[in-house]
Amino acid sequence: MDPDQLRVSRLRAVRGPNFWRLAPVIACDVRLGTLEDVPSTRFPGFAERLVAALPTLREHPCSRGIEGGFVARLQEGTHLPHILEHVSLELQTLAGSDVSFGRVVASGDEGVWWLIVEYEEEDVGLQSVREAVRLVKACMTGEEIDVEEMIEDLHDLLESVRLGPSTAAIVEEARRRGIPVRRLNSYSLVQLGLGKNLRRVQAAMSDYTSAIAVEIAQDKDDTRRVLGNIGLPVPQGGIASSVERALELAEEIGYPLILKPLDASHGRGISGRLDDDDALRRAWEANKDMGRRMVIERFVTGRDHRVLVVDGKVAAVAERVPAHVIGDGIHTVRELIRTANQDPRRGRGHTKILTHLPDDRLTDAYLAKSGLSVDHVPAAGEQVLLRATANLSTGGTSVDRTDEMHPDNVTACEMAAGIVGLDIAGIDVLSPDISVPFRENGAVIIEVNAAPGLRMHSHPSKGTPRNVGAPIIDMLYPPGTPFTIPVIAITGTNGKTTTTRLAAHLFRQTGKTVGFTTTDGVYLQNRQVMEGDMTGPFSANIILSNPTVEVAVLETARGGLLRAGLGFDEADVGVVLNVSADHLGLRGIHTVEQLAEVKAVIASVVKREGHAVLNADDPLVYAMRDRTGADIVLFSTQPPGENRKFEDHIARSGIGVRIEDNEFVIRRGRLRIPIARITEVPLTVGGAARFQFGNILAAIGTAYVQGVRYDTIRAGLLSFFPSPSMTPGRLNIIRVGEARVLVDYAHNAAALEGLMDMVANIPARRRIGLITAPGDRRDEDIRAVGRICATLDLAVVKEDENPRGRGNLEITGLIVDGLREGGMPGERIEQIVDEMEALERGLEMLEKDDLMVVLADDVPGVLAAVQARVGEG
Questions:
Q1: Nearest C-alpha neighbor of 564 from the set 26, 89, 1, 158
Q2: What's the distance, CA 654 to chain centroid?
């Protein structure tokens, strides 16, 4: 019973809706080796050690549904992956995350289990699984392990990666309104909305924030001058680049004074009250490393207020109180600080409502100015300040004063934000009483801040919490303003790329900018911006983060769903074309029914007000109607009256798309909308490409429910050609001399059956095939490729450049077996491993009126070679 037999691999964050959950999860493979059938009870003392290390595991109900349920199962004997699930979740919880979902699923591969756990912060979730493995192994062997340090490290990691309080306040309000949120870096840069309607925020700064306004706000002297120019109350002052100039200004202004660096923030470098030249010299010397230029201002007394102005309107007001302790006549300042920091509301940085009171070198220096030290014992009720400024980041507290502010003062602060030019501004005001007009009590505006902190308003120490995220969202998205764009998600075993391209083409006919992703790249309009298999979340993000895109059409494959989840949370239209045997045996998906569960994620994420476009002829796809709350659109290639499900659907006034009298037709109850005849649509190749009918119907239904006009849909169908430019590698027919070459990417049995049906309906003297299959398919699937292609007159069997784990000639051997099983004589079969050599051989074989079908691996290379032959004459 070697603990090292417990191994975790393929540990990853699945960031979007996925096969296991419609929310982010951490997923990994757990291998147990010789521990596969070993329950927890086989390790003496294991349960006791684990519960002693994490006593809060006693609270887990597990499948028993009662507190203590998990510990009971632990003591009875349970599986190690199940234990990892609970330990990982508990470690995250103790670190400060709010998580509870976890699952252990048999992967279908012998000796491999899928461990799935929820997370709030990706890095914390990943590390919690690693630490769970370490802790479980230690409990197996009795090794000592410092669990407190483990949790502390996870907590520190959580605080280092989670959004700051200001960004979090905005994001929380955005999510409450259903606005998509995408984090753009590991700090606080966040995208709200999608495509053309996206906005970006970072803390309390938005993409509306003026760079010039930020420059003014950062220069305290510029701010003072700008405000003074419109008659707002500001302290008298000036700028000094030397102590000599500072002394000159002091003589002009008169003491008491205050000194602060010109462009510092968060209260850094601000002196206390300066009453004479010696004090000014000392303050200059102490702060000379903070900047070359210093602001010298008249010292003004009053309570420190922060006024938040959003989009020209005051949103909240807070009085800020500097970090301090209240004496009891018994304890020292240091002891009082330690006692105050035990308050559960206080934490490091911005982790809690309040920040820890400081006990550091700066505290010592500030107390020394008053002749005090941390060893001083203040009298009962005596207030001892620990900092000169009232910043929350240095332990200050806040009191909400929003409802107390005088209307004249509201106007003054709104003017201040407006003249500086900030969309979100923090106005710092010194006033004895904010409810009295500034002009009556000598109040002054001392600073205007860009990206002001929001925590003091959303989580004040006293008073009413203010939802300051709401006015910011109102500014970014005024009522009635769209915050997203139509997102069309398309999946299925076959036809995804063609349907995606056709749907994108139909939307382009409306004049909108369309971004789409396919197995051959990412496209903006019809221009490729990135090449490669782009059917996962990375490529979706490229489109959804582009501020020019008005419609997103996203091909979505099973690989991306299993590996990383979807790249979006919701879709306006979800299209599922079909489900058939392909990629079985990979990533734990062994049956067509399991594959359908993966594809059903697309139907599950369609908005309630959206549409799920489903194939009524495929029972597995039709069953997905129960997985969505959206309106259902069915399509069927069967003749009218033959699909009872379709007939019942339109009888209930549902939307359907089918073929009637050789015409593509939209049905909405009794309403019949003819679009185009089959033979008019180039994609059908004169009606021969029957396997394209379903793709066309799905694209028609998608465009229709998104409001595209019937005549626009028709125009789009009639102008979409299966050519190398519009559908590279999909039904590309190229004339070479007096023969024709058909290049296609069909790579599984269902796709090949449709393609061979079309080939049989195209007049030709001989039909020649260049045949291959991906090496990561099952042996029976590769043989099936050969059997289906046995109807051809001649076959040249080749291999993909990447055999995907297969040995040399293994793929060609299986295909040849299938060809022979299908009845093709051996003398009509050739084997040429290299694709380009096989293509050259096929082109040499071509004679007048022949048709050669190329199942291409390197689509661009094959198309280029064929077109080069055309160019040769």
A1: 26
A2: 34
- For the stretch 603-658, pLDDT in tens is 999 999 999 999 999 999 999 999 999 999 999 999 999 999 999 999 999 999 99
Give CA torsion, residues 70, 75, 76, 80, to 10 deg: 70
Cβ-proximal residues to 807 (8 Å cutoff; 6+ apart), any chain: none
Count of other CB atoms within 10 angstroms of residue 179? 21
Q: Which amino acid is at 196?
A: K
| Through-space distance between the first and last CA atoms of the chain, rounded to whole angstroms | 72
Please name the residue that has the structure tokens 């190398």: 724
- For CA atoms 145, 146, 149, 155, give the dihedral sign: positive
Q: From 285, 283, 256, 254, select the one nearest 271 (Cα to Cα).
A: 283
Output the six-digit token pair for 642: 């033959």
The sheet with strand 487-491 has its strands ordered as 527-531, 521-524, 514-518, 551-555, 487-491, 571-576, 606-615, 631-636, 655-660, 663-668, 671-677
Q: Residue 809: what residue type?
A: L
Residue 435: CB partners within 8 Å, gap ≥ 6?
404, 405, 406
- The span from the CA of 621 to the CA of 624, in Å, is 5
Calculate the alpha carbon distances from 19 to 26, 308, 371, 573, 803 in Å: 12, 44, 66, 19, 27
Q: Angle at the Cα of 15 (from 631 to 152), degrees rounded to 5?
A: 140
Residue 563 · residue 536 · CB < 8 Å:
yes
Q: Report the distance separating Cα 75 and Cα 440, nearest Å.
A: 74
- Helices 147-161 and 80-95 cross at an angle (nearest 10°) of 60
**Which residues on neighbouring strands pair with residue 740, listed in sequence order?**
735, 851
Q: Could you identify the residue written with the tokens 């489109």?
A: 543
Query: Could you read off the pLDDT of 205-246 as tens digits, one per residue?
Result: 999 999 999 999 998 889 999 999 999 999 988 889 999 999
Strands annotated E in 580-728: 606-615, 631-636, 655-660, 663-668, 671-677
Residues in the chain: 873
Reduced to 3 states (helix: H, G, I; strand: E, B; else coil), residue 789 is helix
**What angle (nearest 5°) sits at the alpha carbon of residue 834, between those of residues 831 and 838?**
60
Rg (CA), the chain: 35
Specify the pTM: 0.85
Dihedral angle sign, alpha carbons of residues 616, 621, 623, 624: negative
What is the DSSP annotation of 45-70?
A: THHHHHHHH-GGGGG--GGGTSTTHH
Rounded CA gap, 110 and 583, in Å?
18
Q: Which residue has the tokens 């691999």?
A: 9
Query: What does the block give as tokens for 466?
Result: 């203010």
Q: Which residues pair with 576 in a beta bridge?
A: 491, 614
For residue 511 the two structure tokens come to: 């004049």
Backbone angles phi, psi at 330, to 5 degrees: -125, -45
Question: Residue 319: helix, strand or coil by DSSP?
Answer: strand
Residue type, 193: G
CB 341 within 8 A of CB 333: no
Give me 195's structure tokens.
């495509």
Q: Which residues of 628-647 are buried (b: 16+ CB within 10 A; e: fewer)?
A: bebbbbbbbbeeeeebebbb
pLDDT, tens digit, 9 for 90 and up, residues 421-472:
999 999 999 999 999 999 999 999 999 999 999 999 999 999 999 999 999 9
Give the 3-state secondary structure of residue 561: helix
Token duo for residue 685 = 């190749």
Sign of CA dihedral 51, 54, 58, 62: negative
